[in-house]
Amino acid sequence: MSTKHSRSLARIMVAPAVFALLVWMLIPLSMTVYFSFKKYLPLRGGDLGWVGFENYSRFLSSSSFWPAVGTTIFIVGSVLLITVILGILIALLLDQPIWGQGIVRIMIIAPFFIMPTVSGLIWKNMFMDPTNGFLAHLWRAVGAEPIQWLSHASLASLITIISWQWLPFATLILLTAIQSLDSEQLEAAEMDGAKPIGRFFFIILPHLARAITVVILIQTIFLLSIFAEIFVTTAGAFGTKTLTYLIFQRVLESQNVGLGSAGGVYAIILANIVAIFLMRIVGKNLDN
Fold this sequence. Notes:
By secondary structure, the protein is mostly helical.
């Protein structure tokens, strides 16, 4: 009876927070769906009536829609690949006893706490500026011509900026997983003659499977809505326009809230498709 009573009490105590969270999510979602069926121009007449699926067809038939979807998926996939691989390597290095280990860990994790807008501006002005940026001075030092990073290598530059910001998160999660590994397993494998590469692929990497899954799931949720870094660096030009930025651009240009809401619904559908795919393919590791 005490256990049943405790569970009932726990549900009652959690209920207000769950209700507030549902309201916080459902009200904006409902308003987005509602306005997606209307022609609503705040600065040009306001509510002009119900238009059905016209906004959806207009957004889908746009020549920028599928390229934006492809760019979004490419950026997300590239950032995940970079952060997971480098995160594992850095986590392995941080797990080794080195001088100033605590300071090194803080320095590596620090970029994650920088706001996306500030991160984009730092890379744009301090590193990638073709005149006064650090990379420009580095190129001149070796006798090479500085590269216009944000125009000639815009997508690679954007992926670098986003990866730099999310790498600390992946490193922290993977380092925690590595430190939870039983050292006796590694010692036994070493005594049996297993090489470092063999210990990594047959002991460490399988142990990291769940941590890698968590990193992929969490990062994907946030990366699908990436916006600030694009806004302050390329402004969606040079092939860096994602679905989120396209929605912003369409609303800004046409001042049509209904058209932007339809794009928001498409973004929600894309996010759910990706989430279901990840939960079925990658998320199985959580059950093992």
